[in-house]
Amino acid sequence: MTDAQIKFRFLFIPYVIISLMFMVLYTFLHWFLVMKLNLLSPSRLLVTIALPVLLCWIPALIFINLRINLLSLYQTRGNVPMLYFLIAAFGLCIPTIFAQQYLITAVGKLNYLKTIDDVRSKLPEKYFNVKSYFVDKENASWYSNSNLSGWHNDTLNVSVYFICPIYNGKNNPVELPRLWFGVKYQIQMPNGLRSDIKEDRTQDFYKDSQKMFQDKDFRNFNYFEQINEGRSYGGYLAAVNNGYGLKLKDILVFEGKFEPFESRSGDKLWWVILSYILFSFVWGVVISIPDIETNIFQDQLN
């Protein structure tokens, strides 16, 4: 066999198969154990990012690392085999991470209810079309926070979380609401700006957010989505506790969606497909560069 045939058969094909199997198997276990049977209740960060990053090293070490030895990498300067190993590992985990993001939004049916109070009998369902509800934005409270993102923490993200009670109708409020409605606004700015400029932009953002919230029409949502974890949930919980003087540890909070229910996943499926194809292509390119270690290849055949 030629070098190209060896690389295709023993390096490229096993990689694309292992990458696909890892993504499919992990996604199935996520759906079956966490979403269908509710046997586990991991945080979204753990199940969508942390575990794929940690577990991808297992197939990379067992299968990919052995195949890398077929390439003439050890005669070059630097730790080139480790670079190939990292590329292979990233190719396993990145599409899997995108697949979990897609799974969370794609799985779940739309439940049709008469009143917003009926959602309590449908939990842990996530999506609801509600005929009768009233968002009491006159008794809203809000909470703001900021965080840094980017490779060098060069982007400042400022978020505002508005929270207000939601009832069956305008005439049946209760002293302590059982259900909450949340709206989030966010801006980004370069973290390298002068402090006074960042402060001015932040204050302008607060004012604009309050105006957008007051002007927003909270009628005729296509569906409600329950928010029960993540950064948004933490912001809404803080808005409830700070604004109402409470010390709640959990709340039932919903966001209203105007877009069609069928489009809730957006482009997430395309990101899964494109990332898988991209890393397969990158792997094919990098293995095409070095020669094959003929002696090692013959030893493995024997």
Verbal overview:
The protein is of the alpha+beta class and 302 residues long. The protein folds into 2 domains: 3-107 and 265-301; 110-261, no CATH class. Helix content is 49%, strand content 19%. The chain contains 8 helices and 8 strands. It has helices at residues 3-36, 44-55, 57-68, 80-106, 195-215, 230-244, 268-287, 294-301; strands spanning 110-115, 127-132, 134-135, 141-149, 155-167, 180-190, 223-227, 253-257. Strands 1, 2, 3, 4, 5, 6, 7 and 8 form an 8-stranded mixed β-sheet that branches. A hairpin with a 5-residue loop joins strand 4 (141-149) and strand 5 (155-167). Helix 1 (3-36) packs parallel to helix 4 (80-106) and helix 1 packs antiparallel against helix 7. The protein is elongated, with a radius of gyration of 25 Å. The two termini are 15 Å apart. The model has no long low-confidence stretch (mean pLDDT 90).
